[in-house]
Amino acid sequence: MEWRSVLCALLAALLLPSASPAEGAPPVLLKAASAGEFVTLGMPLSARRELLSLPPGDRGKFPLLPRLLRQLAAAGYDGEALSLFAEIAPVLAEPVRSEAFLAVGKIHWRRKDYRSAESAFREVSGKSAARPEAAYYLGRILASGGNTKEALVTLASAPPGAKTALSAGEIERGRGNLAKAIATWRGAADGTPAGFAAKIRSLAHDPDRNAATWELQKVSRSVSAGTPEQSLSLKVLTRTLLRSGNGKAALEWMREGISGATRWRNTILNLPEWDGTEAGARDSWDFMADQFPYGVDASGFFAAGGRFLALAEIEDTLGSVENGIRRISLRIRGADQALAILHDNVAARIRRAEEIQRLFLHYQRQTGAMRGRLKTAADSLVLAKRGKAVEPKESALLDAIEKRQGDLRERLARLGTAFKAKSVNEWSPPLAPEDRIMVLYAQIRLSRIEDSLRLLEGKAALIRGKVWNRWKTRYVMHLSRLLAESEKAMAAAPKGAARAKNMLPKLLAAYERQELWPSYFRKMNARLAQDLVVLSKRREGARKSALGVYRNARKTLLLAVEREERAMQYLAARAATEWLIEGKGSPSDNAVLSGEERKTLLDEAVSHWEAALPAGGEGSDIAGEALYALAELRLEEAEARFFEQEEDPGRRKDYAVPISLFRRVLEEVPGSPYEEHALYGLAVAYQEVGDTDNSIGTMETLLARCPGSRFSDEVSLRLGEFAFD
């Protein structure tokens, strides 16, 4: 439904009518509901309140006024609808004006205030789209007031259809134009309740009874049993047969009608309870509306239906609002949890900013001493250690060379020492020339080895110097880079510390604002919980009210069906009684009822008359006739029973039942057309049982109440006989 699109507006009106969010609280994206939104939501009282709060000039521009008036009336607020219209009517403009007058006229029509309804319908503009419907109601009002000529002219502008044809035919019949009335009814389109009623109406007044009877039988067989259509067609068929004197056929058809009425009543009794949904309400109501009898005043029933549907829609709307509140509550809880996470994140960012500020200040101090530390590091540098760190292979090679040099020098030293020792100890005496040559050669070789070792040591020192120079160069470059970076960091440290310091107030402000939100969320959730309780109670109240209206409407429908059933019992009773009186089923039937058949038919007639009696407290036009017919039938039954006891010498006439029934005619239906018949029958019954005093008193009452009665001469004669005796 379209009202779901404005659910947020309704929630705002219900949940936040006057509260304002706390400073720093999250914004609420809800707005107050307008009169139009309340109309869309099916909440007419709230819409009426909002509309009346507008300036007078704006009220007249409200385009949904006719819809609002219909909603108020459907919900049972006729008075509120009429007072609202009376206040806004002076400032209304077309096309809303005519549509509003139509809505108000229909309210007066349903309240049976036909004079006010006529005034409202006459205000509907002839150019308005509402004019045809207003013409339909206005024509019916004029016809009921006897202004049939204007009524027909007005109905000519009503929407064409079976309903209009049905009313126009009734007006023609009231004017004495029966043929035209029948033609109008026959011209009504079939397929609708009004079309079916028009067709049956044409057959009911058809002067060709045989053709009408045949067509009515055909219709009665074509419709479903236990339906309003079967009831209407069979009642008209039975009346037609009774007018033709065919009581037997009338009784047979009414037996079928009574059986269908029983099914009809059981269908209503077995209707399931409303399932609590708006769609279920519509389905239940549509079914009940289809079951309502023809020709019965259904204004109260359909007014109850309108209230039921309005309450069901309100219940459904409140259910949707409840679900919306629950969803909002869940979102608030989710937002609260997300806020807690955000709150922790902001707190962490605050701590991080403070830490960054401290680190920048620490780095600033550290970089300030960096130049001195670098000089100290350079002065205390051990190249061997540095080489092992940066070029471990080259360092290991230099160490190996130095070790080898040491080994060679040590071996050369030992060789020199050994040579000297030999020279002193062994070669001191004069040696042979060849030995001296060998010693000299050994000295020369030893000297050359020392020279070669010194040369190697020189080359090794040169290589070591180059490598150490390379290490020194790299170390210097590294120290230079560190010095440049430290100077750069030293220059950036104040700025970084300043940025971290500047971030802190914003983070702290956000932290403080966020601390307000949880309390706001808790308050909002508490308010939602309270409103949910209120809405649940209102929804339950709307549900109970709707269910009560539904049950009352179903009870009204059941009473209407029971009245239809009693009407068919009445027609069956008449058919059986006329068959008894005539002694044969139809004018062409020459068969005479046997004693047993007559007794069976009498019992059936009594049963139908008893079933036709109205329920307690219910007025009925047939009550007097039914009681009188029962009294006469019970009197005949008592007489038959008396004569059956012919051989019993102690037999006595027992007329207690017919006497009671005659008295009920007089007591329960005063002024009945059967009053004089009941008085005469009661007087005769008293006389037959020997109650002379009551018989005389009843006869005197008859003469006093009905001076021109057809029984006056006979009653006067009987009174004279009593006086003579």
Order of helical and strand elements:
HHHHHHHHHHHHHHHHHHHHHHHHHHHH
Structural class: mainly alpha
Could you tell me how far the N terminus lies from the C terminus, measured between alpha carbons in angstroms? 88 Å
Number of helices: 28
Low-confidence stretches: 1-32
How many beta-strand segments?
0
Tell me roughly what share of residues is in helical segments. over 70%
Largest sheet: none
Radius of gyration: 59 Å
- How would the global form be characterised? rod-shaped
Task: Calculate the mean pLDDT score and round it.
Answer: 80
Work out the strand percent.
Answer: under 5%
In short:
By secondary structure, the chain is mainly alpha-helical. 78% of the residues lie in helices and 0% in strands.
Task: Describe the secondary structure blueprint for this structure.
Layout: H1 7-15, H2 35-41, H3 44-52, H4 56-59, H5 65-74, H6 78-88, H7 96-110, H8 114-122, H9 131-144, H10 148-155, H11 162-174, H12 178-186, H13 193-204, H14 209-222, H15 228-243, H16 247-269, H17 278-291, H18 299-368, H19 370-379, H20 383-390, H21 392-425, H22 433-582, H23 595-612, H24 623-644, H25 656-668, H26 675-688, H27 692-705, H28 712-724
Helix pairs in contact: 1-18, 2-3, 3-5, 5-6, 5-7, 7-8, 7-9, 8-9, 9-10, 10-11, 11-12, 11-13, 12-13, 13-15, 14-15, 15-16, 15-22, 16-22, 17-18, 18-22, 19-22, 20-21, 20-22, 21-22, 22-23, 23-24, 24-25, 24-26, 25-26, 26-27, 27-28
